[in-house]
């Protein structure tokens, strides 16, 4: 049993991946499946940092060392108490330095074959960036296009249920991609966590099979779609969802029903469109929002805002839109979406 730095590519060979960083670092992004076992929590890191600046490295290490020992003792007594003798954890911190090194040393003293991730989280971050750059151009995307309300996200879910490969950009971004797209009570992930989620899907995707994805702009809420992936999507074959206006409106009223719960907030979101529409148009829309009159509001937004905007964006960015396979949909209820997914899957 020898201690050696382990590369990111070897992480799957271990029983568990242990993140020794602070809770705030873990919350921002981590290796998928990692367990949060901080060697120092956020308050302790601040204390050690202050001592380092004011009193020097020795005092910081003396105080920090006591905190580290206490935290490691707690992990051994609680999180690791049921681990068998043959347990093999991989431990990482920010740069593969003192925090993960301390934990590995203690775990190895117990008798476990603990190893340290070379370069820590920073090596993972480099791996994610490189994976997206190298993997994104190699996959066979099928880009679902169609105006707002075409149920593209629901179609991805239905395709996944049929065993097809999908990349749900809006799902990973936790946002529906429009000015009204924020999900109540659901914050978006960090940009780094978003990219980690995308890299995980791309890494697992079979390049010999289609990967279905929704046409998106370069931003989803406050998150940016990585440029290598965006470029690959814009050059890929398209499948156009041609749903009737009635079906789209019915779908939107179901999918965005929660927006009727807070008319004042909805009116405020519509106000963000002030640079794109006349004052009297916004007043009309905001009046409907405050009244909870979603049907006339969504019909007007579709016709006067989203449809023209989407058409311009798609023509400008989807290079193969003219060759798109067109799939007609008159029903975007549950059964209609399932039928549509089957017809889309059969196109290949």
Write the layout of secondary structure elements.
Blueprint (H helix, E strand, L loop, with lengths): L4 E2 L9 E4 L3 H6 L6 E2 L5 H14 L1 H21 L11 E4 L5 H13 L4 E3 L2 H16 L4 E6 L6 H10 L3 E3 L1 H5 L17 H14 L5 E5 L4 E2 L2 E2 L2 H8 L3 E6 L1 H11 L7 H8 L8 H13 L2 H24 L7 E5 L4 H12 L3
Parallel strand pairs: 1-5, 2-3, 2-4, 4-5, 6-8, 6-11, 7-8, 11-12
Antiparallel strand pairs: 9-10
Notable traits:
Oxidized Rhodanese, domain 1; 5-stranded parallel sheet; 348 residues; 2 domains; alpha/beta; Rossmann fold
What does this entry look like structurally?
The protein has helices at 23-28, 42-55, 57-77, 98-110, 120-135, 152-161, 169-173, 191-204, 227-234, 245-255, 263-270, 279-291, 294-317, 334-345; strands at residues 5-6, 16-19, 35-36, 89-92, 115-117, 140-145, 165-167, 210-214, 219-220, 223-224, 238-243, 325-329. It has 348 residues and is of the alpha/beta class. It has two domains: 5-118, 3-Layer(aba) Sandwich (Oxidized Rhodanese, domain 1), CATH 3.40.250.10; 131-345, 3-Layer(aba) Sandwich (Rossmann fold). It has a five-stranded parallel sheet. The chain has a five-stranded parallel sheet with strand order 7-8-6-11-12, with helices on both faces. It has a two-stranded antiparallel ribbon with strand order 9-10. β4 (89-92), α4 and β5 (115-117) form a beta-alpha-beta unit. The mean pLDDT is 95.
